[in-house]
């Protein structure tokens, strides 16, 4: 996987992931215009590619990626994003830290809509971006109103006819009400890594994609997806993606060996076209069979607790089925956390959570002699703990076959 995706990057030279609504007291600190918080690019008048220089790059929270227009398209631009919730935007940021030159935007307007990506639109605020590098923070001084869709209209840049570029958009404010993401958005998609299937079963998700016989297994709240991906020859990594409310587009990032590698994006296939791959009936068994390791994002626990949530049942059942079908397998259940909290606390929490999974399997008919458990805390990250995306992927349970 890294070979193709590294080439794309060269162009520019849930274990608790709480899906519940954030309390209003914390809303002001949340960047709603971020993949991890469910933001999705709906459209862009121009973008250099569908990956690391797309409009998704500007909501990735990672300055390794930058939105660029197509070459020789440095004129006025419009980017439309959908948020996971309705939000009264109180301030927003246009970060030009890595574009302190004529490509940086100069002036424009941020619009909001509560109705659809087509509007009707109301002005949130006009903006003038400083010519120097840095985070340009704009407070909203007029009447606040709820928006689900944001439209950045860039009227001019600082002189480049070739490109306009932005490192990052951010948006902060208070959530208004709660939108439940309970629609099954299963289907076939065309992605920048070939055609793919995404199949939802409650909070559990499996899938596959045609590039390198790729497979996916993970969990979702109906808006945000966390995956383990595997490819042939054997390669393993993780990914986090957000999907639009109508299931038409998705965008996210993928990681390998703990490092972010690139942007993963796609749109729903129409006209009868389908991927060649077929999703596995038990992706956990497939991962253990081929890689001796399965990363499980669908095992959820109560906050600050080792108590299993009911939403963990589908993934636990897949794990049990895999062990039932392979009575010769013995496995170690490994618990992992992000870096929030102390090392000692995280080690203890991950150990108790791994033990809870073992206890569930043993109480559901798996011989305890085949099972061991161990917590690793934050010591073996799957991704970088410096970003919210990375921390979300580090909260996980892994199953490792004994050799």
TrEMBL record:
GO terms for cellular component: cell outer membrane. Keywords: Cell outer membrane, Membrane, Signal. Residues 28-174 form the F5/8 type C domain. Its main location: membrane. Residues 12-176 form the SUN domain. Residues 288-403 form the OmpA-like domain. InterPro entries: Bact_OuterMem_StrucFunc, FA58C, Galactose-bd-like_sf, OMP_bac, OmpA-like, OmpA-like_sf, SUN_dom. The keyword Signal applies. Residues 382-391 have a biased composition (Polar residues). It is found in: Cell outer membrane. Residues 1-25 form the signal peptide. Residues 374-395 are annotated as: Disordered. This is Sad1/UNC-like protein. It comes from Hoeflea halophila. The lineage of its organism: Bacteria, Pseudomonadati, Pseudomonadota, Alphaproteobacteria, Hyphomicrobiales.
